[in-house]
UniProtKB/TrEMBL annotation:
Its EC number is 3.1.26.5. Pfam families: Ribonuclease_P. It is an enzyme of class 3 (hydrolase). The keyword Nuclease applies. SUPFAM superfamilies: Ribosomal protein S5 domain 2-like (SSF54211). This is Ribonuclease P protein component. GO terms for molecular function: 3'-tRNA processing endoribonuclease activity; ribonuclease P activity; tRNA binding. PROSITE patterns: RIBONUCLEASE_P. It comes from Chitiniphilus eburneus.
């Protein structure tokens, strides 16, 4: 359920289908598979400390784990736009969930069914 290779990330970046808000930018691409795959890109510019970057990645992966069934058939790359900590964690999760719903609406479900 993860994007691992550079080619997989590049194909998502090249399609340029994205949605965003204050916290995140989410890029997506149909993958032709039954499941969704996730890639997370958190640069040092987002948060200088590794602890903060790891917290952001854990938060994104956990929300993806809960939403993966609704995102079937899409490769996603999530890029945080700014750092957030535990105090803003709930707002960041809600913002990311909204972006997942928006990106889901841009691609047809595998098998032709709609949610």
């Amino acid at each position: 359920m993860r994007l691992l290779k550079t080619d997989e990330y590049s194909s998502v970046f090249n399609l340029r289908c994205s949605v965003g808000n204050d916290f995140f930018q989410v890029l997506g691409r149909p993958n032709g598979m039954d499941g969704a795959r996730l890639g997370v890109v958190v640069g040092r510019r987002t948060d200088r400390r590794a602890v903060g970057r790891n917290y952001i990645k854990r938060t994104v992966r956990e929300l993806f784990r809960h939403e993966a069934v609704q995102l079937a058939g899409i490769d996603l790359v999530v890029r945080p736009r700014r750092a957030f900590g535990r105090a803003e964690g709930a707002a960041a999760r809600a913002a990311l969930a909204q972006l997942f719903r928006r990106i889901r609406g841009r691609f047809p479900l595998p098998g032709g069914a709609d949610v």
